[in-house]
Every structure is written in C-alpha cells, then in structure tokens.
Amino acid sequence: MAREIKLGKQLVGDGHPAYVIAEIGINHNGDIETAIQMIDAAVHAGVNAVKFQKRTPDVATPPEQQKQMRETPWGYITYLEYRHKVEFNEAQYRAIDQHCKEKGIAWMVSVWDEPAVDFMEKFDTPAYKIPSASLTDHKLIKHARATGMPLILSSGMSTMEQIKKSVGIAGEKDLVLMHCTSTYPCEPEELNLKMVETLRREFPKLPIGYSGHEVGLVPSAVAVALGACMVERHLTLDRAMWGSDQAASVEPGGFERLVKYIRVSEASLGDGVKKVYESEKASMKKLRRVNNEE
After folding, report:
1. Paired strand residues for 83
2. Which of 179, 274, 262 is nearest to 218 (CA)?
3. b or e along 169-188 (b: 16 or more beta carbons within 10 Å of the residue's beta carbon)?
4. In whole angstroms, what is the distance from residue 291 CA to residue 294 CA?
5. Does residue 150 fall inside a structural domain?
6. What distance in Å separates the CA atoms of residue 254 and residue 23, rounded to the nearest whole number?
7. 292 located within any domain
8. CB-facing half-sphere around the CA of 20: CA atoms within 13 A
9. Which of 191, 194, 203, 256 is the most interior residue, by most CB within 10 Å?
10. Spatial contact of 204 and 184, defined as CB atoms under 8 Å apart
11. Cα 95 to Cα 46: distance, rounded to the nearest angstrom
C-alpha cells in the first residue's frame, strides 16, 4: 500500500512534493477582510492550502473557562464572548470559499466539535483536520470519519499510546498523521523533529506531516528532509497583531521563503545513489591528478 493520500486533485505522500498549509486559524481576529488579505498572502507564497479553525463556541469552550474574563480588542469580556467574536458565520465562510475558488487555492478547517463537522458539510473542502486538542475526542473522530472525508490528525500534547488509539479509531485509510508540539512558540529543544521518522516507522502506511509552532523557518524544511510530506505553519500579516497564536506565526515574506526552503530541500535530497554528474566531469578533468580504476 502506497504511503499517500489524495486531497482534492493533489496526491500527498512519498514521492510527491510536500503539501504546504498556511494555517490562518483565528489570526484574522474575526475580521473577514483580514482573512481575505491572508489568503492572498498565502497564494503569493505558493502554498497548497489555507486552513481556518471552526468551533461551536458553546460546545468547544470548556465550561470552567466560559465565564473567565479577559482583555480583548473588544473590551474586557468573557472567554466565551471572545470565542464568538473570532468565529466566522456561514456567510463569511461562503465569502472565503468564493475567494479561494477565484484564487485557485484549497481551503479547509480544523473541526473542534461535532456540530462544527456538520456545519462544514455545507462546503466542499479536501479534508477535515482534527486538532491536537481533540486527538483524544474519539466521538469527534468517529463523527468526522462518518462523513467519508479524508482526515488530518495532529498529535501535539499526546502520548504515543494516545496516538495509536486515535489512529486505530480513525482507521488508516485517507488519513495523514502530523507530528506536533503544542507550545506557542516552541523552543528548538522541544520540536523533536526525529518524531517524524519515529511515526513513519510506527505507521508505515500513513503519510506523516509536521505542524510547527517554532520561531523561524529552518526546522520545517528539516522536517521535510526527515520524511514529512505535509507542512503546516501559522500565517499572520504581522506578528505584533493581537492574539495568542501570532508570536508562533510566520509573516508573508517569511512564508515565501519557507516554501522556497522546502522546495529546495526536496530537490536536494536526490535518490541516495552515488553517481558522477555530467556537471562534475569538467571539474574532474581539470582537478583530478590520479585516476586509479580497478
């Protein structure tokens, strides 16, 4: 069985270019015009897809957090009120859907609860993402799987046993598993990129991806060199914008470089078979003094 999955018209997995997702998430702060600008920046950077987060605030927000107060751009309001402020409605997602179609870019969401899955069934997206926070929500995984949609499962703040159990519940068909450390931003010492190789060994049929929250670009390209076939990074228009994810996000110019680094890394890997390239022969003729052939 090939380690690949089809997302829309694109094959993702070994032997295919890494599928790059610009995670807009809630960095738009509830403003549709900001979201549109972010989609345009992602298109310019050359990514494969943009992603948002879809919650049903009254369901997805833990009860003990709902009445907690916090400072926001909308004033001193409860956490539940804040969650409603950054949530797009159907009309706004219709506008996102239309804009992405016009720009020729795929879009998808992380579904945080079962009503969010039902909401997204109104749209034609290539996959549903199960966020790291919901990896142990087996009812949500089953509900999302029942739609027949491909799933992307993120594994931050999870043990290997929890990952195995959730993969078992999801089933390995049409599934991408993402290595992730859910710290925003994440220090290099906790990125643990070798987990990409570990997950590839543990799940030999699954495409393995990397969802990064580090500051900088190099680790994401390294993840591709280690076998990640999907890379997801948060996108922001300005890291100084208000919001908890902004500091772990990449600005538009950085995203352009990120995609270039990934493509150069892929091109540089080769096939592991030693050969003398045509481009080397002039140097060999000029520089090699002794040429013992046995």
Report:
1. none
2. 262
3. ebeeebbbbbbbbbeebbee
4. 10
5. yes
6. 14
7. no
8. 26
9. 191
10. no
11. 21
The CA-based dihedral angle spanning residues 124, 12, 247, 43, taken in that order and rounded to the nearest 10 degrees: -60
The H or E element that residue 277 is part of is none
Cα angle value 224/174/23 (rounded, 5°): 50
Q: Could you read off the pLDDT of 234-286 as tens digits, one per residue? A: 999 999 999 889 999 999 999 999 999 999 999 999 999 999 999 999 999 99
Residue 88: partners with Cβ closer than 8 Å, 6 or more residues away: 30, 32, 35, 52, 54, 96
Minimal CA–CA distance to 213: which of 241, 193, 238, 237?
A: 193
The three-class DSSP label of residue 225 is helix
CB–CB of 36/101 below 8 Å?
A: no
Q: How many domains are there within the chain? A: 1
Range of the domain at 16: 4-287
pLDDT (tens digit per residue) in 26-48: 999 999 999 999 999 999 999 99
Instruction: Report the SS3 class of residue 292.
Output: coil
Q: Is residue 219 part of a domain?
A: yes
Tell whether 148 is covered by a domain.
yes
